[in-house]
Predict the structure.
Amino acid sequence: MNLPAADLGIMAEHLPTHEGTISKLKIFKEIVDNQELKKLIQINIEMLRDHVRAMLELIDPNRKREVMLAEIFDIQISTENLNLSEQEKEIVLETRSVSKLMGSNNFNSALMMKDMDVKNIHIQMAYQDVRMQMLYNMVVEHVNGDFTPRVTEAMQSKTYEKYKHILKE
């Protein structure tokens, strides 16, 4: 199957990014001591390798079958033993950020792709990246590694009142 040139170019650009990210995650996995964090990083590595496999299958001009991603089943992270060192907290913040960026990259790429199979696989990849981001976020929240400022109820109400007219007519 001959792919549109744009799709091939985007995937050829993605593959080195995946390679670098997998290498970074492997280094992080060696650094961390916490077993739950190690497990999460390993799941991320396996997921990204599957993304590489899927892209290579999509690129293969001799492909005869539909390309599918491996399913990510419900991943359980135990928060009982999540006492992370400062270095591990920094690593989980970085891995969350990497998942966010990969998800954004995959989704934006899907918007530009022409082949529907390639487009759909990249949307699925983005969804999986978002799931990883959410898992890392659970860890971050558990170890109080993040601060999210909140607005006042008055500011929310003021914003609501300003824009509710859009729904009329």
The mean pLDDT is 93. The CA atoms of residues 152 and 158 lie 10 Å apart. The chain has five helices and no strands.
